[in-house]
Write a structure and sequence with these properties.
Elements: E1 3-5, E2 17-19, E3 34-36, E4 61-63, E5 74-81, E6 90-95, E7 100-104, E8 114-116, E9 128-130, E10 139-141, E11 161-167, E12 170-174, E13 180-184, E14 188-191, H1 207-212, E15 275-277, H2 281-284
Antiparallel strand pairs: 1-2, 3-4, 5-6, 5-8, 6-7, 9-14, 10-11, 10-14, 11-12, 12-13, 13-15
Amino acid sequence: MAIRKMKPTTPGQRGMTTRDFSDITTDKPLKSLLVTKKITAGRNNKGRITTRHKGGGVKRHIRNINFNLPVGTVATVEEIEYDPGRSANIARIKDQDGVFHYIIAANGLKQGKKIEVGAEAPISVGNRLPLKNIPSGSVIHAIELKAGRGAQTVRSAGNRAQLVAKEDEFCQVRMPSGEVRRVHSNCMASMGSIGNEQHQNVKYGKAGRKRKMGVRPSVRGVVMNAADHPHGGGDGGRHGIGGGVNHGAAPRTPWGQKTLGYKTRSRTKVSNKFIVRSRHEAKRK
């Protein structure tokens, strides 16, 4: 994938870039694998906002991705498609029974490529194997954290993980964040990295483009009143965090929780025992 610059016919397009769709082979998705995404504007079933700065945006039809292809599947890549619900491209595959599925498209996946799932599958891009059957040092994606549950991590554009070691029933996997995590050797993973790796380099250029994605404006806490945010208040002029009186106050969320460096992960979280190396260790050096 490459980045395509827009012709600066308007101020908003002067710094705008977009991805080229040369890897996409069709713009007509399979209707049987589409579902309309409901716009919730960040509200839960009680009507309360649980995720701020969401709302509006264009209507989207999300593709049903099969993250848990059954063992023994042998399929052929029919098309490489765009999915409005994710950053990565998707591949439409047709299995040996003539059934269509959507999967995350690995980097280098082309039309006509054979996809195999199982312990005896070849070590090839797109194939899906148990971690115990993948050579150490291999680049992988779409990794299960619990056997049989389907791909749970490393699913966005350009991401990759690396199988760094094997020990007894567990394998050590280096995640894109730098975290090294123990994953059971029976968990499945797909070979290769995910395509559309230039996604993070796209410049949106104007606010309206984000509004079409359902992203609403965000207001800084320091410009609010003291009743609306811990950072608000002050007697006019420039004021820092905590208002015009207490400039040394720690940054906080609108609900008073400390932020910017304050650790919120539970020390008794069940998955802590699977983390061999924290993603924060590299930042301390």
